[in-house]
Batch of 2 targets.
Target 1
Amino acid sequence: MISIDTINLHKLSMTLNHPFTTSFGTLHHKDLFIIEVIDKKDHRGYGETVAFLTPWYTEETVQTNEHIITDFLIDLLRDNPLNHPDDVHDIFSPIKGNRMAKASLEGAIWDLYAKQLGIPLAKALGGVAPKIDVGISIGIQTTTTQLIETIHRQLEQGYKRVKLKIKPGLDVELLREVRQAFPDTPIMADANSAYTLHDMDLLKQLVDFNLMMIEQPLAHDDIIDHAKLQTELNTPICLDESIHSYEDARKAIELGSCKVINIKIGRVGGLTEAKKIHDLCLRHDIAVWCGGMLEAGIGRAHNIALTTLPQFILPGDTAGSSHYWQQDIITPEVIVDDGVIHVPEKPGIGYDINWDVMKQYTVDVKKFKF
Ligand code: OSB
Ligand code: MG
């Protein structure tokens, strides 16, 4: 039995080191909740909400996360016995969607569970890798010259692949220049749904640039047109926004909508579902990697643990803490060393909250007694 005594909801307001621009807009800040779940023996598990302030990546926002967590999900946890973190998904099933809200609480319970057992979260999930390969996701820059300089800087840090954001008008010529400057670098492009099948001719031109994959070129809720596009392209399509669940992944694989899936814990409603999608992809020889949501340290730690599962065969977007934040809320911070992160061996997520830093970002704390 996992007996919860208290849940604390810490609301943080953080400013990114550099604004991050995608085809849907520019992010300067991150407001988020750190979920602290405490059991009767004072083990403490941590989770993080990953939604943004505006519903432009999915429909969830920081505010809807708070509403769903405080008005529904905590009550469901109070009213239902919990034997294993896998139960959380079913306990939350009366609430439709709202997967980022669900994932934040479920993640805290996974961390708590691993700490109760005294094992790393990675091991509790079935992970094996002692270190994980990571890449970097670079937002849209003002000029291509600036982008090329940024790529140089990031490659010097050792990142194993570069992901560039593209959108109509910043695609073929931009990728041509970047490929010329970096003939051998593993490069991929993420369109965040900026194209339609009307852009077929343009998308076909991208095949010339030897990209590892093109991420989410078409609509955020589509898997049919992506299947049509994949039959026309030799470059693998990677789905991000379109995959919210095991069932979405199963259908996309059946239709041939992609050859790669970017798994984000928040987007799919938690670690249990993420692991199921991973296992499905392993059976079907679909490559997976772990996406990012510009997380603070707790969310980043969860991504690291998940990435230790065997089918995470491509570098993910989990860059080091200092890429995003002046100071991260965990200690030690996440360090990328020659393109790898060494997976911590301590129980749970393996990183502690840095309470001095956390207090500086905290704007509110709400306590829920069980
Ligand atoms: O599409 O993967 C995406 C950031 C915000 C919203 C969506 C995406 C991203 C990233 C950055 O690409 C990933 C990261 O560095 O955390
Ligand atoms: Mg993406």
Target 2
Amino acid sequence: MHNKKYSIIANWKMYFSFNQAISWLTINKESLKDLPQKDVSLILCPSFESLSTCKTLIAESSILLGAQDCSEHESGPFTGQVCAQSLQEIGCCYCIIGHSETYENWDVYQERILKKITLLIQHKVIPILCFGENKQEHEHKKTESTITKQMTLLCSTLKENKTTKALFAYEPRWAIGSGNIPANNDLEKALKVAKMIATSYDIDATMLYGGSVSSETIIELKKITLLNGFLLGKASTDFQELKKVVSLLNE
Ligand code: PGA
């Protein structure tokens, strides 16, 4: 028996409509109570319109609620956006920031990421900070320099906001939804770089991995000692699959 603690982020993306999300939770209501295990906590991130109802439906379980993104603005004329304050009011404990499906180019997007982090911290929502190289950077062996650039920016923003409370999710863009995961060696190398930067900012970073995590890939991924959790996309929409991943981690 291990005593490592894991966090699982179930990022439902836009796989479910409002009714579909509600019926998933209603059908699995009883089993959901037993889903988080002693050493595995679960954070459910449905899309915005379902957050409030999902919060009610998971109330009897120890599952926590997270959002998939938030606006970089506090309030004002921003059609279609959702502010950090609403996330706090709804009862979100977490919010994913900088997921690669929310932007095209990190360099253009980075200023917005920073503003989002600051607002979340002000509203006591813990950011789940995504970072990782894209396919081109991966192929040109720029993984380390990309991670260094991104982690430096994320950690310095946390520092400026006088907090170390965040989860870090290494998400190589090319691995998301592809069925391919990095070799354990490469993953360890990338995580070491990220950890080292966090440590230089006095941040004891909790590291997660995201990108094609499933009940099959988790067996290899679990061997990586630097990891304390996983961000699941597609696999988290299948209850049996999610349950399998949790129980494999709990073994
Ligand atoms: P996936 O998504 O599990 O469907 O690959 C993961 C992610 O977006 O991080």
